[in-house]
């Protein structure tokens, strides 16, 4: 099932997409938020299937605005250097910036603040404080159950679904240090667009055999398969849940592949469009604009 948060006639709702129709859950007894729906688990999915089968409460997909599936996940736990080809391409840069090779024994985990969330087709801000704006197309997954100490062989059971993420990065702020300040480099407002759907795990099947591509202005910049992940989704669940509780709606972007602008410094500029597409999950497409004056709030 492809689940979305959308705005129709000025009201934000949740629903499901099938055959270019959006099935609106707001007229039913289902929760009004995506996290509330996720918390229902299989019971919610069963109820939603009944709504879709009835062919009622639907609107054309073209008549709605698709929002980020979850506006403010309680946690966004991202992973760095998690593709073999990407790790190899940045080894020299890491040695120059950090004085050592990046470690690959354990996952490199960092937080993106939930205020960085943007919709799948929203604008990305090129910050006034930096010109070093980069893209990172990524597979993301969403936690479906409150969980802790999840073993690898049970991890699949706590992943609700998968989504497309752009882990937008301000590189010069990331490399401030030592050590690198990953959260400061990756948490700027509008720098976590994701969506357009949460595609439930049953519909995705194996998440570790999906084609991923990133285009900038139509030019292919990143191309990989998720089978190149160093630490796969189930390993990440096991690792993260060893330290702390994961909650329904938590978002885990799993890392980017080779081909971002970090090597050639072909930074994003205003007017650029970044499209990230993943097999079975759809695509997100975001235009880069100069950070507007309206972001000044004090």
State the main characteristics.
single chain, 298 residues, alpha+beta, Fumarylacetoacetate hydrolase, domain 2, 2 domains, ten-stranded mixed sheet, 7 helices, 19% helix
Structure description:
This protein has 298 residues and is of the alpha+beta class. It has two domains: 2-66, no CATH class; 77-295, Alpha-Beta Complex (Fumarylacetoacetate hydrolase, domain 2). The chain is built from seven helices and 19 strands. Strands 1, 2, 3, 4, 5, 8, 11, 12, 14 and 17 form a ten-stranded mixed sheet that branches. A five-stranded mixed sheet has the order 9-19-18-15-16, with no helix packed on it. A hairpin with a 3-residue loop joins strand 18 (273-278) and strand 19 (282-290). The longest helix is centred in the first third of the chain and has 15 residues, at 84-98. It is globular. The mean pLDDT is 95.
Summarize it.
This protein is an alpha+beta fold and 298 residues long. Helices cover 19% and strands 33% of the residues. The chain folds into 2 domains: 2-66, no CATH class; 77-295, Fumarylacetoacetase-like, C-terminal domain (Fumarylacetoacetate hydrolase, domain 2, Alpha-Beta Complex).
Structural category: alpha+beta
How many discrete domains? 2
Q: Which CATH class of the largest domain is shown?
A: Alpha Beta
Main sheet summary: 10 strands, mixed
CATH architecture of the largest domain: Alpha-Beta Complex
CATH superfamily of the largest domain, by name, is Fumarylacetoacetase-like, C-terminal domain
Reported by name, the CATH topology of the largest domain is: Fumarylacetoacetate hydrolase, domain 2
Helix content: 10-25%
Q: How many individual helices?
A: 7
Overall 3D shape: globular
Rg value: 19 Å
What is the string of SSEs from the N terminus onward?
Answer: EEEHHEEEHEEEEEEEHHEHEEHEEE
Quote the average pLDDT.
Answer: 95
């Amino acid at each position: 099932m492809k689940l979305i948060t959308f705005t129709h006639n000025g009201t934000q709702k949740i629903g499901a997409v099938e055959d270019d129709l959006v099935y609106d859950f707001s007229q039913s007894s289902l929760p009004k938020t995506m996290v509330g729906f996720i918390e229902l688990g299989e019971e919610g999915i069963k109820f939603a299937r009944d709504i879709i089968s009835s062919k009622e409460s639907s609107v054309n997909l073209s008549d709605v605005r698709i929002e980020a599936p979850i506006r403010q996940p309680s946690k966004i736990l991202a992973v760095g250097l998690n593709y073999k080809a990407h790790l190899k391409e940045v080894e020299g840069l890491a040695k120059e910036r950090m004085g050592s090779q990046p470690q690959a024994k354990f996952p490199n985990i960092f937080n993106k603040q939930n205020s960085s969330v943007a919709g799948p087709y929203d604008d990305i801000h090129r910050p006034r404080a930096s010109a070093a704006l980069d893209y990172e197309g990524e597979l993301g997954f969403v936690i479906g159950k409150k969980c802790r100490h999840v073993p690898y062989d049970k991890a699949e059971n706590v992943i609700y679904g998968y989504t497309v993420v752009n882990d937008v990065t301000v590189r010069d702020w990331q490399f401030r240090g030592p050590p690198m300040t990953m959260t400061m480099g990756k948490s700027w407002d509008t720098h976590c667009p994701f969506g357009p759907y949460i595609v439930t795990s049953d519909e995705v099947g194996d998440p570790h055999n999906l084609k991923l591509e990133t285009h900038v202005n139509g030019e292919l910049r990143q191309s990989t398969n998720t089978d190149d992940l160093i630490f796969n989704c189930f390993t990440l669940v096991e690792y993260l849940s060893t330290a702390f509780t994961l909650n329904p709606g938590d978002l885990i972007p799993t890392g980017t592949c080779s081909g971002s602008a970090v090597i050639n410094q072909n930074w994003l500029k205003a007017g650029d469009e970044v499209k990230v597409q993943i097999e079975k999950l759809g695509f997100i497409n975001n235009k880069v604009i100069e950070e507007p004056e309206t972001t000044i709030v004090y």
